[in-house]
Amino acid sequence: AKKSGRNAYCFYEKRMTSHATEALNIESDLRKALLNDELCVYFQPQYRLTDGLLVGAEALVRWQHPTQGMLPPAHFIAIAEQTSLITAIDHWVLTEVCRQLVEWRSRLGCGVLPRISVNISGRQLDQLNTAQEISRITHDNGCQPQMLCLELTESFLMEHDEESTNILKELSQQGFELAIDDFGTGYSSLRYLKQLPFNTLKLDRSFVKDVIDDEQDAAIVKSIIALGQHMNLVVLAEGIETQAQADFLIAQGCEFGQGYFYNRPLPADKFESLLRTIFDE
Ligand code: C2E
Ligand code: CA
Ligand code: CA
Ligand code: CA
């Protein structure tokens, strides 16, 4: 028993060490990635469900890793969130989105582009000057707040109180749209809905996934949509993969959505092609 206990301990220790080393490698690689322009942004279109009008897109970061290929955010966002790196990443993404918007505006020769949603991790709100920084990046790169939506998760709202309330109010006053992301997966969400200046409620994919087969998920989805409507919020469903899910959401009065059923996240040039087909009509 003693022997196996010791082995178990060694195994545990070894795993911990390699896990920590891995995180460290990712962290230092990620620092280099930011300097070497290895990150890129994909765009997932968002539609009005009833008639398929393109209304926006969500910007989603990717890492073109020199040896490991294209890495999704699941591989590095959590690690970045444990350090100040997440702020640098989110600022980089915002800058890149603004640069793209300006490029599309001139290349497509059109006045109004679909609004681009950018994910903002909670850590960033730790900083007192967050609102000024987001607004500065936006203006310095030739965009107006009205062209953007900031997606915030409930998890950070729990961790911050008065300070984040003030930051969100300031951003809202400046003209940024604010979306509460992954709605329904956190705690105390109703209180935040009441106190904070959100325009949009993003219905989490985990509820949409089984909405057709699971009565409980169906009940939750119906309730969240009704809640959003009663609070005068735009409701946008995430992760729509089938016609049946889209039909269910439309029947319940959910106005907007995104998901593989419509498009996967697209590289910038593919999203631009999509914009062209719309503007050429
Ligand atoms: P999220 O904000 O909930 O983003 C939606 C995720 O769902 C994206 O994953 C998207 O590719 C995926 N998705 C969209 N439609 C479907 C569908 O129909 N089926 C399925 N199975 N998945 C779908 P992705 O791109 O891997 O991003 C994962 C998460 O990483 C995001 O979840 C977000 O929390 C975070 N993230 C992505 N980009 C950024 C960023 O620039 N900054 C920060 N702070 N977080 C980011
Ligand atoms: Ca999001
Ligand atoms: Ca989400
Ligand atoms: Ca989600």
Explain what you see.
By secondary structure, this protein is of the alpha/beta class. Strand 4, helix 4 and strand 5 form a beta-alpha-beta unit. The termini are far apart. The N terminus is likely disordered. Bound molecules: ligand C2E and calcium ion (3 copies). The site of one calcium ion has 4 residues, from loops.
List the SSEs and their pairings.
Blueprint: H1 2-35, E1 39-48, E2 54-65, E3 69-71, H2 77-81, H3 85-108, E4 115-119, H4 130-140, E5 148-153, H5 154-159, H6 162-174, E6 177-183, H7 189-195, E7 200-203, H8 205-208, H9 215-230, E8 234-237, H10 243-251, E9 256-257, E10 266-267, H11 268-279
Helix pairs in contact: 1-3, 4-6
Shape: globular
Radius of gyration: 20 Å
Total beta-strand segments? 10
Biggest beta-sheet profile: 8 strands, mixed, barrel
Number of helices: 11
Task: Give the distinct bound molecules.
Answer: ligand C2E, calcium ion
Domain EAL: 23-279
Protein name: cyclic-guanylate-specific phosphodiesterase
Organism: Neptunomonas antarctica
Task: Summarize the structure in short.
The protein has 281 residues and is of the alpha/beta class. It has eleven helices and ten strands.
Question: Could you name the key traits of this structure?
Answer:
11 helices, eight-stranded mixed β-barrel, binds calcium ion, binds ligand C2E, alpha/beta, 50% helix, globular, single chain, 281 residues
